[in-house]
Amino acid sequence: MYQIQPILITLLDTMLITLECVILALQAVAAVRLALESPFESASQSNNRLSKRSPVVLGGGDRKCYRMKSNVNGINLNLRVESAFSDIIVPLPSSSNNIGLAIQSVSSGEPVTIKYKGDEYRGISSKAVVTIPGTRITDIKLPVIAVKKQSPDLIGISPNLDGVFGIGYSSLSKHHPPATAMDILYNGNTIPNNEVGLQLCPYDMISNSFINIGNTDITAKCGTNGRSVAWVDSPSDGYFSVNIKSILINGEQVDLPAEFQKRILKNGYALYSRVETCFTFMQFPERVVATLIDVIVGSNAIIFKKKKLSDKLNKEMVKRKLRKNRPIFKSNYNIDWSKLPTVSITMFSQNPVTDENRNSVVTIELGPKDYIQIIDSKHVRFTVKVGSSDHAILGISFMTRLLLTFDRAHKRIGFAPGCGCETATDGYPTISNGDQVLWSPSQLPEQPSTSSSSGRSGLRRSLLRLGSTLRDNIRRGSKRSKANYEKLED
């Protein structure tokens, strides 16, 4: 008996170590959620100041992107998370002007020309070894488009662009045949779902932004299980898009242009409204924006306080600021948020729309803090601007207090409570269907549910405590057995 005890302790230690390794492995499988870098900060590592993040004013730029840390062929890059693109874009290892020569340094490369954000790039369709720190995506060969750097001294493609991680549909791929990183990761069982969860937070909560590749490790949030509470179909023939049924200001429907979402594209599909992660604003037809601005100005909710202006001059000044999307210096204005209107976007949840399903809708109601957002410590800005009359763009300001799921497998977009929902006091945003409110901040329980990650940590702690107790008991039993054995020998 005395000799058996150490063997039992050794076996128990081995079992617990193995069990702990299994738990850690399961956690590693789920650990696909990682923080995103701010679009409000320096966009590139290319200046080699990797530890410095100099804040920059958004200015008039529409194309700010959240970025994630990645390693491609051994080079650390901050890749833009881009829903309007499906490929990974990275810099060529060589800065040669001769793309043909550069192909020799990249296996299986073939020349390709792409357009991205108004610029044209010459590059190579190829593969690269990609690692995304903190996830199971480690040293995996993925399709990339490697493009020529603007300067051989840069790490990235340009001072403001290290590269792109596209999450769009494969129909947008520039590879022949189409091949996207998301599809490769899913088909290779690296991620369990062909989905991406995105929480893109505003300036004052930017550290809570994250991307969830594969959409696992979902945690309970604000009275929900963390998953989408509403879904809308998003056709896979092009960009992530939604079919907007109506737009309302303070509950009053705005007449949309006759051509809104009526244009038929070359592929035979209708041009719906896009959801874009690299577009700063919500962009609507002129009529919608004009109506919203008129209601804001008419509410007298924004008053210039430095000088005594007539009501007419104050309204003209505010209207000018709003229409030009200029930064508003917070200390110069009194803003009564309670007077400002709401903006509601109602989308058909099923596509194509038929007589049977036309009442199946999802409505996102936004409050004033969604369309007038903090952009730095001193300024706010109106984040709605005039765009095309035939479609809308729902950019970053639409989603900064929502958690969106881009489900590439089932061709749909999901909506759930996002940034700041735990502490929201203004009652927005809300998510509804045609019958009821599915979620609003007013529905929050007093004690949110425990997250799944906390549950796993608790399980691990419990198992380790159990193992420690068992070992102690066995050791105590061993000492007692040894004492009794020695007594018998006396």
Explained architecture:
The protein is built from eight helices and 29 strands. With 490 residues, the chain is α+β, with helices and mostly antiparallel strands. The protein has a six-stranded antiparallel sheet with strand order 1-10-9-26-27-11, with no helix packed on it. A hairpin with a 2-residue loop joins strand 2 and strand 3 (75-82). The longest helix is centred in the C-terminal third of the chain and has 38 residues, at 452-489. It is globular.
Topology:
Elements: H1 4-30, E1 33-35, E2 67-72, E3 75-82, E4 88-91, H2 99-103, E5 110-116, E6 119-131, E7 140-147, E8 163-166, H3 181-187, E9 195-199, E10 210-213, E11 230-233, E12 241-242, E13 244-249, E14 252-253, E15 273-275, E16 282-284, H4 286-298, E17 302-304, H5 311-323, E18 328-329, E19 333-335, E20 343-348, E21 361-366, H6 368-371, E22 372-374, E23 379-382, E24 384-386, E25 393-394, H7 396-399, E26 402-407, E27 412-417, E28 430-433, E29 437-439, H8 452-489
Parallel strand pairs: 3-8, 4-7, 15-25, 16-24
Antiparallel strand pairs: 1-10, 2-3, 2-6, 4-8, 5-6, 6-7, 9-10, 9-26, 11-27, 12-15, 13-14, 13-20, 16-25, 17-19, 18-23, 20-21, 21-28, 22-23, 26-27, 28-29
Helix pairs in contact: 1-8, 4-5
Give a concise summary.
By secondary structure, this protein is of the alpha+beta class. It has three domains: about 1-30 and about 450-490; about 45-190, Acid Proteases (Cathepsin D, subunit A, domain 1, Beta Barrel), CATH 2.40.70.10; about 205-445, Acid Proteases (Cathepsin D, subunit A, domain 1), CATH 2.40.70.
